[in-house]
Amino acid sequence: MYFIFSLLTIFISKSVSLTFVSPEICALDQYFDSSQLICKQCPPGSQATADHQSCSCDEKHKKMQADNQSKIVCTPCSEGQIASVDGWGCIEQISDTNMCKFNEARSFRQTNGLLLPKVTCTPCVSGTHPSPDSTVCIPCDQIIHGSQCQCKPPNVKTDGICINPNDLVADSPNLYIIHENGLKIETTFFRNHLRIAEYMCRKFQNQTACQLLGNLCVLLHYKRGEKNRGYGRNACDLSEGMPWLYYLQDSAEHILSKSDIPVQYTFESENRNSSFLNFMLAAYSLTGEYLGMSPATDGTLQLCMLTRSSRAFTFQVGKYYTQQFCNLDLKYDNFENESVAELYPVPVLNLNYEEESGYPNKLSNAPWLWHLNRRIWLIDMSSTKESSDIENRIVRYAKKISIQTTVQLYSDGKIAPPLITIEYSSISLESLRSGKTMPITFEVVYIDSEDNLSFFLKIALTVSVVLCVVLAIFRSWTWARQTGKRVLDFAALIKFVVAFCSFASTIVYCIIAVASFYALMIHKSKRHPHVLMPSFEGENLWFLILVVAFVFKVVDMVLFYIEQITSEVFFIDWEKPRPAGSRKKEASVAASVISSSASTVSIWRLVIIANEWNEIQTYRKSSHSLQLIVVLFFLKVLHFESLASVEPGFQLQQISQESCDTSLSRLAIVASLYFIVWSVQCIFHVLITEQCFWNQFRYFIDLCSVCNISVLALRYRLYGYYLHGRSVHGFAEADMDEIHEMLRREKENLCEQRGLEPNSKNQIFTVCLQPQFRKQYDDIFDVLVTAVKSKRMHNGKSLSTIEDEQRVKAFYTMNKFLINFIDHCITELPYLIKDRLFTEAMLNCEFQDTSNCSIFYRDPSETAFSNLFFYGNEAKLMIFDVMLFTFVDMIVKNYTIAAFVAYIVVKSLKIVRKSGGRKNIARTIVFLIPPLVKVVVGVVEIPCSCSALLFDRQAQLAHTRTHQFNTVQPSPSANCLAERKSSAAMKLCSGAIDS
């Protein structure tokens, strides 16, 4: 176990940086101060040791303890004398001595410890012991290790050193306690080293002892003793002489906002000094020895193994990096300034730092409460050992290390001091031996000083929420007009909530996707760090917002599918039975007249139209399967997924180990690629497929005209679409020759146009109906259903037979009602045909009052009724598709799995939509069972406005036998004359329907 640490302290230097040195470059009269990482001048009369780690008196000076016993000084020897080998005395200078015998020590002292005038070979006496090189007998009371020493009272031997117990810090069990995950561990290492290290550091300023004492404090997560909680003092309270461990004078906000680093970083890799963060690590052993400095690219900070190239690219400027899940002290950053290497202290945020009030360093939104530190460790298996004979119960390790670099705004690449965030955890030794994977995270992220992207997103989202509320209110008001609601009720409130979910999900997702794409492209294209992606932790807020947006979109899609499969549709059949002799063949063969009996109207035209209607319900401009295949092809085969890596440049290459993407960068690439592929599909479909090959909806309109069937589809109670399919020839049931003749006449313009208005081609209308129309529409069903209830067992007929008869009756009744309405035969239900106003077209709504008169708005595009299908909601479906894809990808981080899940979900929803739509047609069109039917028990009164429309089937047949059809469309007045007379004659009648 070792510690990583550096010691440029603001208390002794006004400079914020320090020229980079190592022990090897110190002069002969200088030693390397491992606390401050600089070369210092040795005191007079001393010289540096061979390793330059300390100074010792030269051969002309001896060591002497100062009066205050807190410092050792070098005192000159007399003329002709040199320092003894132990350095504590002076003896006569001699040229050389012979080696002493095996059982003798070459001694400079007498048996009583007094110095000899010259070297002699003398056995060591009691109270002394041979030095490691057998040159002297050393008094045990000196500060020198010796396993053979017997300390004189009152001194006691502590860690191999004779020390007066009164000079040590008072012994207490709290000095040796470590609290970890609820465990209270009394560590042997603390008991053996803490008190002696404090003594050596305080009394003799021994650097190794001071470093050891600092290490013990770091192992406690810098937690000071708290007497009021019963913890007492600990290593962090014994701060005298310890190295720099805390930032005490400045707040964390001030430290992290300094602009003292002069380097302008760039994304250009040619200059390694300005395109890489050259972190240098100063390492110390657990016992305090300085181990030297090394670059961070050697992988010291990364517990998970990486290749050499991967470790180097981890610290490339602008390159985000994260590494997680593997089996099981950064303090200075090397900055280049005019070819002179300098060091800058890097603060540490230890998330395990605890105070009586809690863990202030975990408050990410309160940096003014942070306590920054200077030293870290990575793995601890020593301090948790409770006895030399017992194995560790736990192993402590650095669970997460995050290097966050803040780019100064408008500074062309300058950065603020990086921040190292570290979090520790522990794992039991049994779990470690069993091969359990430890969740270890190492990440490098960049943020800008103002966090521009997050600021923009917050402003945009705030504005969008207000906009969504306004749009939801407007949508709810429009919906209330289209459904005929006059007061606010629970249904209107639900509509408002769903409308808000619809707008909010779409707008929020688009804002985040566009902002993320912009930030990613700027990050990749600029020379200097400019607009940066959020950090991995900074993404948490936006991930939560995207989750909420997706939930909102799911709510919106649920209502969308419900509306799609519950819309009311009625096919208006204009065909009437043709009298005998009206159908004559005009072929070259001899003419023949058909049977004199009246021909009946076939149901198959209606079945064909209903089937085609069902087929186009899930028809789209784009293919979802093709969409996913193309997107995956670009991502995986052409390596567009590498563009999601948050690093400079646009290299399309296979994802490497050091590449790192974020949730927002993946969303930006997937959403943009998805939108481009979708747009290409839609443009190709509209401009090429529909113009040159087939137009599904144009074909459906033509089919309706050929079949002599119109369609009235109500999206809401008073709002829907009308497709005018009335044949200009007056009939549709014809043989091949007649059909050919009809088409020829249309081609040569020998007949009227197909439009609802005279000489008009417009067949599609958006209809806003008056409430009276809906009332009569519902009254027809009310009367018929009541009749079914009252005659279920009449005439001995079965229930199913009676219901079938009533359904057939209902079809003809409703068909006649709608024909009369379209032909203006019902005076109390008038309607106007007009164009939308400009504002109505822009806002896709209607402002004109329809309380007394229905309005048919022309649709020049002839695609308005596609809003009842997938085709007219292509954008909404695309937004849901891409949100589903990216939502799954944010969870699993795998494009293939996300595409597979998206395919399954969309395919399932398509099946549900098609099945529900088919059942809706069977329920509301073919068999005419309306979604909502009022059941009235008792006497049924037929409203006057409705009674004239209810007629006997035989009367209808008799009427149609006398009607002669021409090859041109009949005028509405001729069709309605008989009905108006019948209506006037029956104006006051009422009663129940006779079967």
UniProtKB/TrEMBL annotation:
Keywords: Membrane, Signal, Transmembrane, Transmembrane helix. The keyword Transmembrane applies. The keyword Manganese does not apply. Residues 1-17 form the signal peptide. Pfam families: Meckelin. GO terms for cellular component: MKS complex. The chain crosses the membrane at residues 455-475, 496-521, 541-562, 667-687, 882-905. GO terms for biological process: cilium assembly. It comes from the Eukaryota. InterPro entries: Meckelin. This is Meckelin. It comes from Trichinella pseudospiralis.
